[in-house]
Amino acid sequence: MRVLISADIEGISGICDPEQTRPGSQEYERARRLMTGEVNAAVEGALEGGATEVWVADGHGTYRNVILEDLHPAACLVSGKPRLWGMMAGLNEGRWNGLFMIGYHARAGAYGVLAHTINGSAFAEIRVNGVPVGEYFLNGLLAGACGVPVRLLSGDDCLAAEAAAVFPHAEIVTVKRALSTRAAVHSHPEIVHKALREAARRALLNPLCRPLSLPGPFAVQLSTVRTYHADLFAAMPGVERLSPVCVGFTAATPLDVCRTLNTFSAMAASVA
What residues make up the catalytic site (predicted)? Predict the structure, then answer.
């Protein structure tokens, strides 16, 4: 039984401010340790549930956050960028029995601690077939196209509410409660780790989880934070300018959706 863990940082207990998510500060180094601790709890639970192989795809920022020497020795770490599959790197490496999303957050345009989708400085909202979506949806859809069900998610209470509507049979662990976009009531790491271990073990024994499968093509609308972001993205072939701050494109597969959005994000970062 093989498990892929996609790990982000904004949905980790103890994290509530952008400074904690950016390399170069003591707050970030502490955040990395908190992130690694929650990932380890998920790894331990997966092993208890029967997993024979676990990969951890570091999915925040530079994709170099999880501390390798502190990671559970049974897990392999995928880090660094650029990489074709982004936050889901490793998904194309053979058959997986389940996907865990650890440290995830609510979508852009919604309430939640550090809520955003892919690039908070450039993307104001992403819609797929007219519906606002977050990273959990995009990555779950990508996993579903590969026949892999989402079995576990963790983050704040806002992420939990959004994810439950998309993945009704998945285990969801709420690690903190949002008070605002930069404030939260956090659970102690020991409590969180215990909950993650138990949920991960249950997740692998749950027969009800099914891959998220939606037929293509996918109509994607991206509302941008600034007009110049839309100026930039509209230069891409196949992209239509819908308004001063909105572009659209059609993608045949979930991978095409994610690749295009990740390319937009890289473009925005290059001119930030």
Answer: 116 (nucleophile)
Residue 162 assigned as binding residue: no
Helices (H) then strands (E): counts for the chain: 6, 12
Flag whether 58 is marked binding.
Answer: no
pTM: 0.97
Per-residue model confidence as pLDDT tens digits over 87-137? 999 999 989 999 999 999 999 999 999 999 999 999 999 999 999 999 999
User: Catalytic one among 116, 186, 193, 229?
Assistant: 116
Check if 116 is active-site. yes
Q: What is the dihedral of CA 168, 171, 175, 177, to 10 degrees?
A: 20
245 occurs within a structural domain: no
- CATH code at 76? 3.40.50.10780
Phi-psi label, residue 212: left if phi above 0, alpha if psi -120 to 50, beta otherwise: beta
